[in-house]
Amino acid sequence: MSDAGCPDPAGSVGGFLCRAGQHLRAAAIEAPRLEARLLLAEAMGVEQAALLREPRAPVPPEAATRFGDLLRRRLAHEPMAFLLGRQGFWTLELEVSPETLIPRADSEAIVEAALAAFPRPGARVLDLGTGTGCLLLAVLSEWPEAFGVGVDLAPGAAALAARNAATNGLGGRSAFLAGDWATALSGRFDLVLSNPPYIESAAIPALMPEVAAHEPARALDGGADGLEAYRRIVAALPALLQPQGCAVLELGLGQREAVSALAEAAGLAIRGCHADLGGVERALVLGRQAGLG
What we know:
Function: Methylates the class 1 translation termination release factors RF1/PrfA and RF2/PrfB on the glutamine residue of the universally conserved GGQ motif.
Number of strands: 9
Keywords: Methyltransferase, S-adenosyl-L-methionine, Transferase
CATH architecture of the largest domain: 3-Layer(aba) Sandwich
CATH class of the largest domain: Alpha Beta
Family: Belongs to the protein N5-glutamine methyltransferase family. PrmC subfamily.
InterPro entries: DNA_methylase_N6_adenine_CS (IPR002052), HemK-like (IPR004556), N5-glutamine_MTase (IPR050320), PrmC_N (IPR040758), RF_methyltr_PrmC (IPR019874), SAM-dependent_MTases_sf (IPR029063), Small_mtfrase_dom (IPR007848)
Organism: Teichococcus aestuarii
């Protein structure tokens, strides 16, 4: 890669940023300059602002080595969140790993819908397929009297979610366990949350490489029609929900009608659907039908 257009010395902060930006741009990374700053700040253990203040400052050898490793991984389209080991969601900062999906802003629609649908601070909350714990922990952060349980098929994901709860001061009001959806649970909950795998199996290879090659397939693959997980979840909901409780499920693009039909066939009532910031119908709100045992 040519160094043309890089005025700062090769071993300086500005030189590293310029050359890394060139490589990232050539790899079709969407925000190459920003990502170069994030990676160099991480490698040097400083804030991004410090890089901008002193562009001609030398990069220490250990930081240069660390930066080179991070840059190579990003050029291979490993997600930035995995490189940094963290991701913001709602008002929280969460640890992430390849055991879990990376929390996305679209999923904040689930939290918003849940808070609107069940405004009771003392709720008992269940999060099925908890991953990082992002949905459950966001709700608990808004309801100081609530308690929640997160379940994930992967023990590593459940352990990571427990660490996130502790780091965010929510460990005393949450518990996490490994299990196959609701099969390990008994009792009823006021609110059930879930962001299940909903991508059709055949569509996964065509996803952007950051997702297809690096995020866990079990958290993406919804089976041949993308609805496999929904069938299991809605079948379990009548036994999981308190009489006045509700569930909020994340939807993929264009899935509202199909998931609503599954829910109604399981004896659940459709209470509404909330869109994300992009206008996609993202959060389906369900409740128990009147008279359901």
